[in-house]
């Protein structure tokens, strides 16, 4: 159907408009991040991205990080997490596993160990259930380092956790006392 390169190009564009800048193509996200599929396709086509419903289905289904989700009827679509626009994903607070992981670049570790993990421009801090995923995340930013998060202690101390549709654990902030560097 599509080459891997074309699928990746479309996926990156969807990330841009469904997570960060819907106004780039003139769409709006509702309060939960959803937008109408037919409107999205029309606006993408108007901006030179010739995408059919079948191509959109393929991109969503084959995204290895499950970044996007359709509603039950496949009439609406949204990004699963990672938004910089203000939306409420409607996730229910959940008890996390005992330990979670955060991948970062080694040049960020000193700052994180001083200030904790902050969400910055995103709506949440993103955490993984396994080291391999955290390493892959860290590699996107430089030499990777995996931080170990004592999620169970955070939870017992009243911090709220959510799990996104694609299995990423989300929280608002991770104070430094719950973080251990895997290098130390």
TrEMBL record:
Pfam entry (one): PTS_2-RNA
InterPro entries from the UniProt entry: Ptrans_KptA/Tpt1 (IPR002745), RNA_2'-PTrans_C (IPR042081), RNA_2'-PTrans_KptA (IPR022928), RNA_2'-PTrans_N (IPR042080)
An MF annotation (GO) of this entry: NAD+ poly-ADP-ribosyltransferase activity
Gene Ontology BP term (one): tRNA splicing, via endonucleolytic cleavage and ligation
Keywords of the record: NAD, Transferase
UniProt key word Transferase: yes
Entry EC number(s): 2.7.1.-
Record function comment: Removes the 2'-phosphate from RNA via an intermediate in which the phosphate is ADP-ribosylated by NAD followed by a presumed transesterification to release the RNA and generate ADP-ribose 1''-2''-cyclic phosphate (APPR>P). May function as an ADP-ribosylase.
Similarity comment: family membership: Belongs to the KptA/TPT1 family.
PANTHER family membership: PUTATIVE PHOSPHOTRANSFERASE, TRNA 2'-PHOSPHOTRANSFERASE 1
Name the record gives this protein: Probable RNA 2'-phosphotransferase
Species per Swiss-Prot/TrEMBL record: Mucilaginibacter robiniae
């Amino acid at each position: 159907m599509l080459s891997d390169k074309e699928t990746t190009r479309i996926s990156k564009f969807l990330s841009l408009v469904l997570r960060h800048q819907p106004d780039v193509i003139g769409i709006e996200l509702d309060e939960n991040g959803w937008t109408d599929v037919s409107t999205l396709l029309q606006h993408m086509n108007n901006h030179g991205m010739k995408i059919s419903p079948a191509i959109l289905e393929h991109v969503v289904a084959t995204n290895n990080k499950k970044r996007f989700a359709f509603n039950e009827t496949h009439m609406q679509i949204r990004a699963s997490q990672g938004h910089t626009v203000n939306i409420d994903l409607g996730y229910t607070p959940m008890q996390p596993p005992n330990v979670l992981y955060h991948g970062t670049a080694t040049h960020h570790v000193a700052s994180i160990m001083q200030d904790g993990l902050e969400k910055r421009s995103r709506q949440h801090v993103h955490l993984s259930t396994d080291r391999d995923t955290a390493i892959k995340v860290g590699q996107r930013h430089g030499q990777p380092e995996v931080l170990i998060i004592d999620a169970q202690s955070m939870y017992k101390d009243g911090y709220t956790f959510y799990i996104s549709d694609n299995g990423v654990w989300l929280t608002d902030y991770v104070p430094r006392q719950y973080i251990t560097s895997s290098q130390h």
